[in-house]
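User: Show me a protein chain along with its predicted structure.
Assistant: Here is one chain, sequence first, then structure tokens.
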Amino acid sequence: MHSNIFTIAFLAVLSIANALHFYVNTDETKCFFEELPKDTIAVGKFAVYEFDPNLNDYIENKNNLKVEITVDETFDNNHRVVSQKNSPIGQFTFTSLDSGEHKFCITPKHTNWSKKTRHRVFFDLIVGDAKPLVDSKRDTDVSYLTMKTNELIKKLNNIKREQSLFRLKEAQFRDVSESVNSSTTKWTIIQIIVLIGTGLAQLSYLKNFFVKQKVV
């Protein structure tokens, strides 16, 4: 368990932290862009609050408010690498597969679709060094990293199973193709032999016929 924390903590030497604070309406999407190096851990921490006209202040809404988080690789036809719908306060983690510009988008959504209001959003993005977020003495951090590691292992195992299944189907298709080609070749040879035999038989018959008719 501690070895996983050690590995993640030393994946990068420098860390880049970006803190954003902005306002957005319900169902309105706010995006920003960040250049990420290849094989770099990015951890986003967010907190979304909802305006309460009775209190004239922004409060936390744990029951009806959800936050949709997406991350797209703009350099790869906006290939989506993260798509989550979380509680108003939380975090997400992913590893950049290639170097390039990434687009981070945040959209507050209500489970009650008819409700529209104003939201205050805080967003922190830490890139590279995971050590500020990891404390091996805190069970919550260790459990979170263990969960993420198990998820990655599960995804890798699923990919391996899919690759094995694909190789098996490819081998079966190759065997069927070879069998069909072999049968086609044999059938063609048989047809040629039959045609030649038929031709020779007809020639022999005609020769005998002409001999009997004293034509030849």
